[in-house]
């Protein structure tokens, strides 16, 4: 029983770590990070944290133009929004 619970906990932890969309774009096609950040900030976002997610998408944590907290995944080539968590 203990092994089953440990396996279940490991599965849940792994799933949580890799939550979010996957981007299958070659890195040489990605928008430059500085250009991407400037584009997002011009739309009214304040970026607190920027990173490349485990799924190879651009991901920001910050605030929208209304000051609401957001976590958003973007396609690194086009800058298109893929998923938003508020």
- The proportion of residues forming helix, as a percent range, comes to 25-40%
Low-confidence runs of at least 5 consecutive residues: none
Largest sheet geometry: 4 strands, antiparallel
As a percent range, the share of strand residues is: 25-35%
Structural description of this entry:
The protein contains two helices and four strands. By secondary structure, it is α+β, with helices and mostly antiparallel strands. It has a four-stranded antiparallel β-sheet with strand order 1-2-3-4, covered by helices on one side. A hairpin with a 5-residue loop joins strand 1 and strand 2 (58-63). The longest helix has 16 residues, at 2-17. The model has no long low-confidence stretch (mean pLDDT 86).
SSE topology:
Layout: H1 2-17, H2 33-42, E1 46-52, E2 58-63, E3 69-74, E4 81-85
Antiparallel strand pairs: 1-2, 2-3, 3-4
Features:
86 residues; alpha+beta; four-stranded antiparallel β-sheet; single chain
Give a short summary of the structure.
By secondary structure, the protein is an alpha+beta fold. Helices cover 30% and strands 28% of the residues.
């Amino acid at each position: 029983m203990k092994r089953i619970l440990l396996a279940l906990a490991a599965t849940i932890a792994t799933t949580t770590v890799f939550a979010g969309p996957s981007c299958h774009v070659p890195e040489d096609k990605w928008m430059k990070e500085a250009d991407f950040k400037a584009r997002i900030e011009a739309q009214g976002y304040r970026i607190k944290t920027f990173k490349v997610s485990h799924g190879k998408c651009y991901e920001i944590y910050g605030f929208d133009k209304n000051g609401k907290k957001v976590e958003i995944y973007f396609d690194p080539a086009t800058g298109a929004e893929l998923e938003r968590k508020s």
